[in-house]
Design a protein that fits this description.
There is one protein chain. The protein has 179 residues and is α+β, with helices and mostly antiparallel strands. The protein has one domain (2-177). 43% of the residues lie in helices and 21% in strands. It has a four-stranded antiparallel sheet with strand order 1-6-5-4. It has a two-stranded antiparallel sheet with strand order 2-3. Strand 4 and strand 5 (68-77) form a beta hairpin. Helix 1 packs across helix 2 (40-53) and helix 2 packs parallel to helix 3. The model is unreliable at 121-132 and 154-163 (pLDDT under 50).
Length: 179
């Protein structure tokens, strides 16, 4: 994370905006996991008016580096104060469609994170006592053992993964970094 010399005004405005924001609505459906998730429009809808009312804005810039794509997200305040963060994701396929998908994914999660908003009903209570995905299907699709799937889901680097392409990319990244 990078920031301006001071973030006093930005922090105060973000605090007020967060008091006004609700979680991002889970309206989109993931066909592989058969689950609902908050798409980019839902995240923008959750922050648009509270940001506007409190002098906040954001910009996002796509990045490409060493087989990974990502986004730099900058949160700005009318005072000139700012904070920025970069999220890079590994890509399994090196083509424009895969890059676009990964950038959209990075934009959504980066914006949600920098704004400090959760997805609607994201407290885990609805899934307590039952898995939210079929790990056998994930193992088969990724050509993993069940143990590899369990280990990967316990890794913070792939929390909230919404589609199998991102899951596979994260798995390859995790495997390449295992010693």
């Amino acid at each position: 994370m990078q920031k301006s010399e001071s973030i006093k005004e930005l922090a105060s405005a973000l605090n007020q905006a967060q008091a006004e924001m609700s979680g991002a609505k889970k309206k989109a459906t993931n066909p592989f996991f058969k689950s609902k998730y908050s798409d980019m429009n839902a995240v923008v809808d959750a922050i648009r008016q509270p940001f506007c009312d409190n002098g906040l804005s954001y910009s996002q810039f796509p990045l490409f580096e060493a087989g990974c794509v990502g986004v730099e997200t900058i949160l700005m305040h009318t005072s000139g104060e700012w904070i920025s963060s970069t999220l890079m994701l590994p890509m399994t396929k090196q083509d424009p469609q895969a890059a676009g998908s990964a950038i959209t994914y990075a934009r959504r999660y980066s914006l949600q994170s920098i704004a400090g908003i959760p997805s609607e009903d994201d407290d885990g209570n609805s899934t307590r006592g039952k898995p939210s995905v079929d790990i056998t299907a994930v193992a088969k699709e990724c050509n993993w053992t069940l143990q590899e799937v369990v280990e990967s889901f316990n890794s913070p680097s792939i929390m909230s993964v919404d589609d199998i392409q991102n899951l596979e990319a994260c798995a390859k990244y995790i495997r390449s970094n295992k010693k």
